[in-house]
Sequence to fold (192 residues):
Amino acid sequence: MQIKSQSSTWAGIFTFVSLLTLGFIGTYVYLMWQQGRATWLVYLVTAPFFAMGALLGYGGLRGLLRLLRFGHWHLEVAGPGALGRPFVVRLLPSRDVTPSGEIRCDLRCLNVTIVSTGKNQRMDTKILWETSWTVNSATILKDMGLTFSLPLPAGGEGTTQGSNGAGVKWQLTVHVPTRTLSDEPIFDVPVY
Fold:
């Protein structure tokens, strides 16, 4: 099973939402202009939506260009990990990558809760467990990847994250330093 890094997913979502926002607002303003009803009030009301669409578009396109230039990452796992046992995974880049130093891995167990305050909801994240280690590697080939073991603790909680995002999840962040740009793919790892 291959798990995509979160950065590649968010870049596509931001770009899609920005194009959708700019398309709807642009069509609305154009139709109002065609009918001769485009006044300063129409421009005043639609300006924040244009700004939001442009900001999302900037972030999304920047992320997509970064993915095109430097590639994306996948994490290959045989199945869900088991607490108390080493969990062997393989990090696969879309291009050959030569790290300029040690690769640092951070594994965290997070408990995400949704707190309701009246009509508003917010997500609180609490770190239940975390560890860091380094891995030495020469060039990481896209066909072979980099195989390493995740040190899962004997005591702990397995993944219980629901569709609303609340629950326990395990997150692996891999810091890969390169000469051009340091990359930090983040993966949600299934642990039971």
Observations:
- The chain has a mean pLDDT of 83.
- The radius of gyration is 21 Å.
- The CA atoms of residues 13 and 60 lie 7 Å apart.
